[in-house]
Automatic annotation (TrEMBL):
Tree of life domain: Bacteria
This protein's name: DJ-1/PfpI family protein
Pfam family, one: DJ-1_PfpI
Keyword Zinc-finger assigned: no
InterPro entries: Class_I_gatase-like, DJ-1/PfpI, INH-QAR
Residue ranges of domain DJ-1/PfpI in the record: 7-177
E.C. numbers: 4.2.1.-
UniProt KW keywords: Lyase
Oxidoreductase is among the record's keywords: no
Principal EC category: lyase
Amino acid sequence: MAAEDTRKIGILLFPGVEELDAIGPWEVLSYWTHNYAEDGWEVSCFSVDGKPVNCAKGLTVEAHHSMSSMPALDVLLHPGGQGTRPQLTDEPHLEWVRSQRRSVPLMTSVCTGSLVYAAAGVLRGRPATTHWASLDKLAELDPTIEVRADERFVDDGDVLTAAGVSAGIDMALHLVARLTSAERARQVRRGIQYDPQPPV
């Protein structure tokens, strides 16, 4: 497939992003796109200015692009974390989210990334979820949202929201299945040896 035909997934990085919110989906999606290039997808990370970001628990992660240099996206993934709190009242960021909603076919979020979508009006009248500790905040931000407290992720067509932190891995595997096939998602799950059996 020609490079210009390759479809693009972008993961947003920002100060205070929860590490696994971004890195969990990255592992799933990058394993998929590196090992099955014939599917015609690629994934990259971007930050506001293209510079590295300091995450919630001290990890520093580099971005591939800035917001201004990133390619046009087919899928946007907005992670959560403490860094989303100031975004809820950051009108330039919320307007950027709205602009992505107008141009990106599939908007996805992990954890409290959905709070930002709610604040931007992206989830109006839709079913959605978030981290268990922020479910009330999701409803407060937009009472029209059908908050689904018990679901690992909620697929509402062109908007896909995941619950907290590790739920982003499940959501990303669902995304692989949705964009290709369930068999491909099973191959990726086996490849990254993701088979949760919690010890406690």
